[in-house]
Amino acid sequence: MTRGLLDLDNPWLTVHDGDLRALALFKRHYSYRRRAHGQARGSPTFIGQGEKMVLLTPDCLSLFAWQRSTIRRDSGQGGVCCTVFRNEGPQLSSELVKMADELADLRWPQERPFTYVNPGKIQSTNPGYCFLAAGWRRCGVSKGGLVILERPPA
Predict the structure, then answer these.
(1) In this structure, are residues 102 and 113 in contact, taking their beta carbons and an 8 Å threshold?
(2) Model confidence pLDDT, tens digit, residues 105-143
(3) The pTM is what?
(4) CA–CA separation, 65 vs 54, rounded Å?
(5) Is the alpha carbon torsion for 127, 119, 153, 60 positive or negative?
(6) What is the rounded CA–CA span in Å between residue 90 and residue 144?
(7) Side-by-side strand order, sheet with 113-117
């Protein structure tokens, strides 16, 4: 693993798509489906094609993955998409989101971060609360009923 870009106070470490520790966390995320997300037969990759950044905390209890995308046909969203965030560790989720935002802003300074949350697959009555607490906002709902969240570029 390598240290997150420039900021030694940032707990995120960059790993490759296909890192088995990251894959283990992803398999416990509600969006996991066997051989989904562009995963080829026998491959541990899970983000899909394109430009991406996979982040893991040193204790391997939190995962965050960014994927730079063109306009998504299903929702009309474009920018850098958080494809998965899972926190099983002691750190506050909103703080982890903020620190992942910093890394995305360094790599893609002019891109709009966004994500989808499936309100039917989480226990919270406030879908995406940790993103909202990190300064994100709701900006719509996809055709499939996913809540779309965004953060204006830094």
Answers:
(1) no
(2) 999 999 999 999 999 888 888 889 999 999 999 999 998
(3) 0.85
(4) 4
(5) positive
(6) 32
(7) 2-3, 13-15, 52-56, 62-69, 79-87, 113-117, 147-150, 137-141
